[in-house]
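Q: My labmate handed me this sequence with no annotations at all. I'd like to see what the chain might look like in three dimensions before we decide whether it's worth expressing. Could you predict it?
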Amino acid sequence: MSHYGLLCLCLLGSPLMAMQMLDDESLAGVSGQGGISVEISGGGWAAQSVDYNQDGQILRMEALSNRPVDPASSSLTTLDVVDEQLHIVHQGRASELNVGAFGFAGSDNSFGALRLFYTLGASLLVRGGGAVGDSGLGLNDSQLSLQAMTLYYRDNGFDLIVRDASLEAYVDQAALDVIGGDGHDSVLRLGFGNSRLVAHIGAINLDLAQGDPEGVELVTPDNPDTRYADFPRSFGQFDMDMRLGGSIDIVAGGATGEGLRFIPDVTISDSLFQYKDDGLLRAENLSGLLRSQSGVTLDLDEDGRGRYVQLAFQDLKLNASLGGLIIGNPSNQKIGSLALDLNFQDQGARQNWFKLRPGGDPNSGLQGITADVSWNMVSSSVSLTDNGNSMWFSGLRTHGVGQLTLDLTRSCAGGVSTGCYAGSVDTQPGSGGYDGHFDGLRLGLKNVSGGYSFDGLRVGGADAPLQGGTELLVLLEIFPAYDFTLNGQLTLRPGGASGDGVRYNADFFVTDANAAITVDETGRGLWLAGTRYDMHFRDGSLDVTQAGVQLSKGTYWSTLDVHDVRWGDRAAGQSLGRIVLRRYEQGSTLSLSSGGAGALCVGGSGSNASACAASGGRWEDRGNEGLTAGLKNVFVRDASGNPAGSVSNSEKRNQLIIETDRVNGVDGTGAQLVVDNFYTSDANPGDASANSYGVRVDLNLDVAPTSVCNKSTSGCPPVSPDPLGFAVNGRVHFKEINIDRIQNVHPSGGAVTSMYGIKLQNADIRANLTATPMN
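A: Here is what I predict for the chain of 775 residues:
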């Protein structure tokens, strides 16, 4: 009796003093000739603190407790032996788990507080003997269930709330073994066998109304605090159904000294992931693996900036294939499948680690999370398969270091109150130098310095010849190579333009950047070198609708200042001069949807094959998969005026400056051509201020065969069969673009306006480009 009772209590974390003796009537209801039923009621348990001590550092959880929501309720656990296996059935009660603070002992900073409401249930078949030998434990045909979960994460008095959550684990042929010994470190191996995890999150909300980490009680699922308008709005709904195999080895000792090392060899197969807003994002067939030879280490350590938890890995391989990708409506055409082959590897000073420190941004209070990060990814690729045709972004590499902070924050726009931060003196939310906080979940970026590059495209097979074509994505600001230093912030709020989704405010400051427009394998090409790029977003939104993903930039303004447009090497190539591009937009959008160009006429016009051929074109059917991207840029006129004899320096203005013949390369010392205060219009005679059409760029992206001729042979005969290529069908169209003036600027003579009041109307430019290997 005592042996099985102790096992039950260890599994369920229930208080010994709450155990009740069963009376004769209750015993008579126990099924079978043997077995035990344990009914537990009472007030739960509490601990003042729980410490984890490693290498002299103490990670502490304070004010830890687990109590039933209803003290009069009880849980029931039965134990029986079935076919030489221990059968444990647990029917839990609604409970509440609290962690008052989580951080390092002796420090005022903490990672925050947690509160979890849940109901636990289980049906476990425990066998003796693991996957290796006769020792160990195994689980067959077992289920673990967490239902009715609501999680509150509290940061400086504000709450992130995960509602209507559940987790079901179905486990068969899983095992727990201790292997090794004989002079070697023992390894605790967790084998997944045939495991399945089904998870659901009904909503993720924010409650920023509290602002008082000490004086206000957390809200509860039955009595939500609705003083803050975002509480009923959600970031969206998530569903996951994953089938796991493989194992994780746990070894004593971290990167240095004490600690833990996790060595994953985990496989994922036949799984599903879905995000739902008004529409959905779905991967219907998710598979992949997570593997590390040296393992992921967990250490507690300290440096000149304080104590931290470090996760590090010398090598890590993440391979994933997302099949049956759908954007928008389940009946929509599919994108095809997306595959990732990401390989992280330490190389000298370029290493892979995260150092997690308690406390976030210094202006956000003592709670939150700070992460010093370093990453180095080598020899990786991303591929897209469209109607059975595949394309690889090959030779993907990226590395960098920096600091990230994560906080729940509130703006002082509604008046100064506890927990808000208005920004430094003389900065406002509408200014480029704003460093304050907005309402929401804030990701801070500090001196994130890094870069990425990829060798080029491979079409048809992973070992196909490298080719160009990445230049076709520059309109989406995806460059073949890019290095940068990034500072700024991104703040998210639940609820999109309508319903669920995401709203955001952001400020990004990119410095010391070099972006390739086109580049070859030796690093030579056309470069935007020595670039500074400031970007500001106000009241943007991200929604998934029935039609696809819709990103609204809200009110957006930016300054792109390219010190040198270089031809050749990014550092020593010939400079073509300086370019400054300022943009001021309202209502600009980016949309993504499933399906590419489908059937179209190339080199002619016509809605069917015969009409296309009659016009001298070629009819191509690129299938029902692919990706469609739509960009709409609505440029707004700056009403601050056009100063005579000088160039406007207003940051919220659409302006293009080309500067050449600078003295010793110093900005502002050369001759300039200025296209000043340009903006779009709907050209509506009944409403001169109408400006919603903007400049639109429609792109259909496919992997498809196309007709190519061999110029090295007389008559340029067609190559047979048609080679695969990266196909982009594009259209640029607008109703009207206005330019207030064009200025010529001499460094000593000043600015002279050469043209006033220019209008460009009703453009519709179409192009079809397919990049194929030259050989």
